[in-house]
Design goal:
Length: about 525
């Protein structure tokens, strides 16, 4: 028989205070990590430290079988937790015990362990699964790209669901081991370093390791027949590039661009500080898409990026993300400016480096290109919304913001900001508000009005970002041309021969920069 407990109000308060927090009842983890742009992406209640992914893939049929082991820590008392995943699951173990599981919603795998997990407890989760990734559609699309000789996993903001279960949000980064078995004659490429390769009975297994924290959408897998190129940067960093053997007319331009990876990495290190990962490189598979993606340490490029000829500018963009977006990742997707504004601005810096137009000249041109009333100015790069997350304005107006910052703080402080931000926040996550506080500390003055105008206010700012009258040409972004080279602006006669916007001449680098506008064409990926 239950006895009724009667206590005074003061006694009740004392009892509540005496109950330890750990005595709170266990509950399911949230089905989303809390990002307002993508409410169901990621999950609550745990934090992942490592993924061990073991796959067998048959290119002829697109059949993938896998076992993923996840090392995680509960961040609350958990009766149930979710993973994001799209393929068919055959077994789930939690700490060695069979766990109940169910597929719900678009991509939720609900797991109920035999024994609830206590807050702070380590958990080993094993998921066995199989499926045909190209046949799995979620939210009306698939991020798995089928090729004539295999398949590719590369997409933003999601691609993991089609080949491994995960806590799919950049806020939960982890290290990775990816082991893939494919028929002899086929390669499997992923992030990080190839630690071993073995062949047996007609199959070859490739074992890749990424030992630095990595967001799930930056994890890539490429299976097919590639021509591999290995080298080191001038600074000694290993570089691995790969090209499908059937790129056709785009093969030469792709190589002429991507083979400059080592040169570009060392050049960007002069602006952004030491390269944050143990290897660099990229791959160009035979896909029909037109976008590129900064998959960590091994960039994905579509052949269409090089259909008009070589384009080093897109290589600069994606490699700049290795610092801005990969090493320092956004905390929530509304912070996308921290990725795209700086990667686009790196292209402007490359234009200076190549004497094809200074960053200030490009900023003047972009500002003139979009008159007041242009819908371009309605997009707020600091919070564009999920439907405009990859809008051209996020890139170009985002880069205008960086130029405005450069002019406001001066060249010395600007260079410190570009270099020290990815150093101070290396392998972590950050928000725009944190960047503002950081930049204000370096500059020694408030920057809220400037960033609010360029990032968060709809409408065309009153004037293009321009250097203060006392700013020297070097501080304004001008770089002296190499001996015998044309000036950065191209000279009066060259300027007159080029198209202009509101009287501002088009920089010579503009066509290459504009050709990368679709590098993260979100709509294209979601309507394949």
């Amino acid at each position: 028989m239950r006895k009724r407990l009667i206590v005074s109000a003061a006694g009740a308060a004392a009892l509540l205070l005496a109950v330890p927090a750990a005595a709170a009842p266990a509950a399911p983890g949230a089905p989303g990590i809390g990002d307002p742009y993508y409410p169901t992406y990621g999950n609550g209640g745990y934090d992942v430290s490592h993924y061990d992914i073991r796959l067998t893939y048959q290119p002829a049929t697109d059949r993938l079988e896998g076992t993923t082991t996840i090392l995680a820590t509960a961040t609350q008392d958990l009766t149930r937790f979710n993973l994001d995943f799209a393929l068919d699951v055959s077994q789930v173990l939690v700490n060695g015990r069979p766990a109940a599981y169910a597929a719900t919603g678009e991509q939720e795998l609900e797991i109920t362990p035999a024994v609830p997990l206590a807050k702070g407890a380590a958990a080993t989760v094993v998921v066995r699964y199989a499926g045909t990734p190209s046949q799995e559609s979620r939210y009306g699309f698939t991020a798995w790209l089928r090729t004539p000789d295999g398949g590719i996993a590369a997409g933003e903001p999601e691609s993991a669901w089609w080949w491994f279960p995960s806590n799919d949000h950049p806020a939960d980064k982890a290290t990775f081991d990816v082991s893939v078995q494919v028929p002899d004659g086929t390669q499997a490429i992923s992030n990080g370093t190839l630690v071993s390769q073995t062949s047996r009975l007609g199959w070859t297994r490739y074992n890749w390791r990424q030992n630095k924290p990595q967001a799930t959408y930056l994890t890539t897998l490429a299976v097919g027949r590639f021509e591999l190129s290995t080298d080191t940067t001038p600074g000694g960093l290993p570089v691995l590039n790969a090209y499908s053997k059937d790129l056709g007319d785009n093969a030469g331009a792709a190589r002429a661009s991507v083979q400059r990876t080592g040169e570009v990495v060392d050049w960007l290190s002069g602006w952004f500080g030491p390269y944050p990962f143990g290897s660099a490189g990229g791959y160009v598979p035979n896909v029909t898409t037109g976008y590129a993606l900064e998959t960590q340490g091994r960039v994905f490029y579509s052949p269409r990026q090089f259909a008009a000829g070589s384009n080093t500018s897109v290589v600069v963009h994606e490699l700049a993300h290795q610092w801005y977006g990969d090493s320092v990742s956004l905390e929530r997707w509304s912070d996308i400016w921290l990725n795209e504004g700086f990667a686009r601005y790196a292209q402007w810096l490359w234009s200076e480096h190549e004497n094809e137009g200074t960053a200030q000249e490009i900023a003047d041109y972009v500002y003139a290109l979009h008159p007041a009333g242009d819908a371009f100015w309605n997009v707020k790069p600091g919070d564009p919304g999920p439907d405009r997350q990859f809008d051209a304005a996020v890139y170009d107006r985002g880069a205008l913001t960086v130029q405005a910052l450069r002019n406001a703080v001066g060249e010395d402080a600007f260079r410190r900001i570009l270099r020290d931000w990815p150093t101070e926040h290396r392998y972590g996550n950050a928000t725009i508000a944190e960047f503002q506080r950081f930049a204000e500390r370096i500059a020694g003055k408030p920057l809220g009005d400037l960033l609010n105008t360029w990032l968060y206010t709809a409408g065309r700012p009153a004037a293009a970002p321009s250097p203060a009258p006392s700013t020297s040409p070097a501080q304004a972004g001008a770089v002296p041309p190499a001996a015998g080279a044309p000036s950065a602006g191209g000279g009066a006669s060259a300027a007159a021969a080029r198209p202009s916007a509101d009287g501002v001449p088009e920089p010579r680098s503009w066509k290459q920069i504009r050709a990368t506008d679709g590098v993260h064409d979100h709509a294209e990926r979601h309507t394949r």
